[in-house]
Write a structure and sequence with these properties.
Elements (H helix, E strand, L loop, with lengths): L1 H14 L4 H22 L6 H5 L5 H15 L4 E4 L3 E4 L3 H11 L4 H25 L10
Antiparallel strand pairs: 1-2
Helix pairs in contact: 1-4, 2-4, 2-6, 4-6, 5-6
C-alpha cells in the first residue's frame, strides 16, 4: 500500500502534472496489458500453474508504476533499508530481489516490470525513434 500511494503520487505530481487523463490512460494500459498477459499465460501448459496463483493484479500494477517512475527518474539516489544505496534506475531490480529473498512470487513483480516496460517503450522510446506516439491519449 505504501508503494501504491508513494509512486502514484510521485508520478501524478511530476511526470503527469496537469495531465490527469494521460495518467489514467497509463493505468488503463497497464491493467489491460497485465490482464492480457495473465489470460494468455494461463493457456501455456508450463506457465499455467504459476499464473493460476495470481488472483489480484494490484501489486503488479503498483510495480508497473514503480518501474515507470524509475525509468523517468533514473539518477535519483535511493537507500534500501539503510543497507546500501543505488540509483532509482535499479529500484525495480532491488525490489524484485527482495521479493525473492522473502519468499514471495517473483511473477507478480516480473509482470509489473513487463507492463511498465511496454508503457515506457511505447510512450518514451518509440516516439523518439519514429516520431509517432502509439499511446496518445484519446480526446473528446
Amino acid at each position: 500500500m505504501f508503494f501504491l500511494a508513494r509512486y502514484c503520487k510521485l508520478l501524478e505530481e511530476n511526470s503527469f502534472r496537469g495531465r490527469t487523463a494521460d495518467f489514467f490512460y497509463m493505468l488503463l494500459f497497464g491493467a489491460t496489458v497485465l490482464t492480457g498477459i495473465v489470460l494468455l499465460g494461463g493457456m501455456i501448459p508450463y506457465l499455467s500453474e504459476s499464473f493460476a496463483k495470481i488472483i489480484f493484479l494490484s501489486n503488479s500494477l503498483t510495480f508497473m508504476m514503480v518501474y515507470v517512475w524509475s525509468k523517468q527518474n533514473p539518477f535519483i539516489h535511493m537507500s534500501f533499508l539503510g543497507l546500501f544505496t543505488f540509483t532509482a534506475a535499479y529500484l525495480p531490480w532491488v525490489l524484485l530481489g527482495f521479493s525473492v529473498l522473502v519468499g514471495a512470487s517473483a511473477w507478480v513483480d516480473l509482470l509489473g516490470m513487463i507492463a511498465g516496460h511496454a508503457y515506457y517503450f511505447l510512450e518514451d522510446v518509440y516516439p523518439r525513434m519514429t516520431g509517432r506516439r502509439p499511446l496518445k491519449t484519446p480526446s473528446l
